[in-house]
Description:
By secondary structure, the protein is of the alpha+beta class. It has 4 helices and 7 strands.
Amino acid sequence: MVVVxxxxxxxxxxxxxxxxxxxxxxxxxxxELHLGTxxxxxxxxxxxxxxxxAVTTDHGDEIVADIWFRxxxxxxxxxxxxxxxxxxxxxxxxxxxxxxxxxxxxxxVYAIGDIAALPDPKMASYAMTHAEVVVQNIxxxxxxxxxxxxxxxxxxxxxxxxxxxxxxxxxxxxxxxAAPATAQMVYERKGADLFTAKFASRFxxxxxxxxDRD
Length: 214
Ligand SMILES: Cc1cc2nc3c(=O)[nH]c(=O)nc-3n(C[C@H](O)[C@H](O)[C@H](O)COP(=O)(O)OP(=O)(O)OC[C@H]3O[C@@H](n4cnc5c(N)ncnc54)[C@H](O)[C@@H]3O)c2cc1C
């Protein structure tokens, strides 16, 4: 397997120990890294389709493969709000929100997750943190109280990056700041089932959590 990325670091912005751990595990799996470079031209076959892939990096390396996957070019899907009827979008096509995560100009409309104009990384774990703020505020409104829960930026970056079921690297917040997560921790928290048990139980599914199985 070959990974090409324009950034010259794995997991930029995360702890060096986390970056080193990931690199060590990728090396062990035989994954070839081409960092700090891009492709001179995109592959001629569609992403995700088996075929003959032959590309050249800006550094002049030739890569031949049987399939390629696109892991770039993610954008926020807010086309349906682009007419500004709800609120004018930001330059990044995100929805401006207040500190209580109300859409600007509305007391009873909220925006969370990727579409919210917040500096948080566009990641599910941050969307869940936003949801907790909004749940508190809607609950207060339903009780006739003033919604008073505010979003606050997360100082420490966090990630759980499984590599297969049992491998992986990660970084988690602790009272003393960010700390690396071991592969065992990544397995236990995410790699074992990619959160399916957690969400099944949250949606009141009787399926037992994977860790409780005999
Ligand atoms: C390949 C990939 C891997 C990722 N891996 C991770 C990871 O490991 N960890 C992590 O924390 N984050 C990860 N993310 C990011 C994570 O998926 C997003 O940050 C998260 O899903 C954002 O949640 P959301 O609810 O804001 O938006 P979404 O999950 O995108 O949900 C928005 C929903 O709105 C629907 N929708 C859109 N337009 C309309 C419309 N007009 N009408 C009705 N419905 C509409 C969409 O279909 C979608 O279901 C990954 C993202 C990608 C693309």
